[in-house]
Design a protein that fits this description.
Layout lengths: L4 H33 L4 H28 L2 H30 L7 H36 L5 H27 L9 H27 L17 H12 L5 H9 L10 H9 L5 H26 L4 H25 L2 H32 L5 H25 L6 H25 L5
Helix pairs in contact: 1-3, 1-4, 1-5, 1-6, 2-4, 2-13, 3-4, 3-6, 4-12, 4-13, 5-6, 5-10, 5-12, 8-13, 8-14, 10-12, 11-12, 11-14
């Protein structure tokens, strides 16, 4: 029995809300809890995230390929339960570090074992979340949602992402206040319960879609390459990925991750506080407005798309981002108070272009990537953005002085303009009809 399309969309959106709210809360709670365990030792959290992102870059292409080899409902089960298991194990790893640390990370066989375990289960959680995103947004959605409704549906998903990005950290922060000297990780334990409780309805919602619409379970499969080593599979995968007609679009999107011009970004926040000495309230309002400007793009993109093609609409939003960050750079270089306000304003306006283009990029992937290779291609795209993130934070660590920040801003503008140029060339030369 086929369920109505509107019910499919409603269930997919609700499951998205559940998974993103839990993910955002957990991502916020883990570094805060590590600072509770190791006060003033931010390098512990930094090393943790470095190893998790590095593992994501190395393993995501191979993990995502499994999406193409198995039924969609099995992939969803694996993604959900791997996240649930990882959250529980990661809590116990952090709890173990608290028990043996006494506030200072002292290198020992036990502390190193617990730290490695925390990184491994953190990587499991990260890969599980990425698999769920690719399996649902990149595979189930284009199979279940009509093409003419993709732009609206993707906009709803992005609205959910932005809403949870703002609200979940606040809720998690309130839970983290529940602590005592005897057990400072009580708040983290509550966030664990939050995640576990959200996994069950998420699982039931997705399984109901597959059970009542069984044709969504199966998909076209590609032959496996079990005889090759992991290294050869990865090298061959990268070579094959860049031969895909849609690969330049994913490359353009990855270039946008090489930017410090994000209201909620760690590097820009650090500069606004340390370089310009802006008060926390001003920075908080700036971050909140960044989310609101991003949400505005989710309403604007479907409206513009009705009047233009998908390629041209995406190109317009990307060039709008390139224009606004360029004007922001000019304001920044003035070195005046008005220049500061102008810089912040243009960074906020650039979010409209960024989120508008990201919606276009996602829809291009959904309608252009063949069903048999959606997992592999999206997996390599995810690894590409992960690599860009590692490069960005490496540059931030190298150019750590506030006096160096203009270099990071200038480089960010260059990468965004380069992204727009590459996309414009691709949109005019590609044979894809979009």
């Amino acid at each position: 029995m086929n369920i109505p399309r509107d019910k499919i969309e409603w269930r997919l959106l609700l499951s998205r809300f559940l998974t993103r709210s839990g993910d955002q809360a957990w991502d916020f709670a883990v570094p805060i809890s590590l600072l509770v365990v190791f006060p003033g030792q931010i390098q512990v959290a930094a090393m943790y995230y470095f190893f998790v992102r590095l593992g994501h870059v190395l393993l995501m292409p191979s993990v995502a390929t499994l999406i193409d080899q198995h039924a969609r409902d099995l992939t969803a089960r694996v993604g959900i339960f791997s996240q649930a298991l990882a959250v529980v194990l990661q809590f116990f790893a952090i709890w173990g570090l608290w028990k043996v640390s006494e506030g200072t990370f002292v290198i020992s066989s036990l502390s190193l074992t617990l730290f490695v375990a925390m990184c491994l289960v953190g990587l499991l959680s990260d890969l599980g979340a990425a698999v769920m995103h690719i399996a649902v947004s990149g595979d189930v959605v284009p199979a279940a949602v009509p093409v003419e409704r993709l732009s609206v549906f993707n906009s709803r998903i992005r609205q959910i992402d932005l809403f949870t990005e703002v609200t979940s950290p606040i809720a998690a922060g309130l839970l983290l206040l529940v602590a005592s000297p005897e057990f400072p990780l009580m708040g983290l334990l509550l966030v664990v319960f939050w995640n576990i409780l959200s996994f069950f309805p998420e699982y039931l919602l997705l399984m109901s879609v597959f059970n009542e619409n069984p044709q969504l379970r199966t998909k076209i499969k590609i032959p496996t390459q079990a005889s090759q080593s992991l290294a050869k599979k990865i090298l061959l995968g990268w070579r094959t990925f860049f031969q895909e007609p849609v690969a330049p679009v994913l490359f353009c999107y990855a270039l946008l991750w090489l930017s410090v011009l994000s209201p909620h970004g760690v590097l820009l926040t650090g500069f606004l506080k340390g370089g310009w000495a802006l008060p926390e309230l001003t920075i908080g309002v700036f971050r909140g407005l960044g989310a609101l400007f991003g949400i505005s793009a989710t309403f604007l993109f479907p409206w513009v798309l009705k009047k233009s093609s998908l390629k041209l609409t995406s190109e317009k939003f990307l060039w709008f981002q390139a224009l606004t960050v360029s004007l922001g750079l000019l304001c920044f270089l003035q070195g005046t108070a008005w220049g500061q306000y102008g810089f912040l304003l243009f960074v906020l306006l650039s979010r409209v272009g960024l989120y508008g283009f990201s919606l276009g990029e996602e829809q291009i992937r959904q309608v252009s990537i063949p069903e048999a290779v959606r997992g592999r291609v999206n997996g390599f795209g995810s690894a590409l953005t992960g690599l860009a993130t590692l490069f960005l934070y490496g540059a931030g660590a190298k150019l750590s002085s506030t006096n160096d920040f203009p270099i990071l801003i200038g480089a960010s503008v260059v990468f965004i303009v380069l992204s727009a140029l590459v996309f414009s060339v691709w949109s005019r030369k590609t044979a894809l009809s979009l």
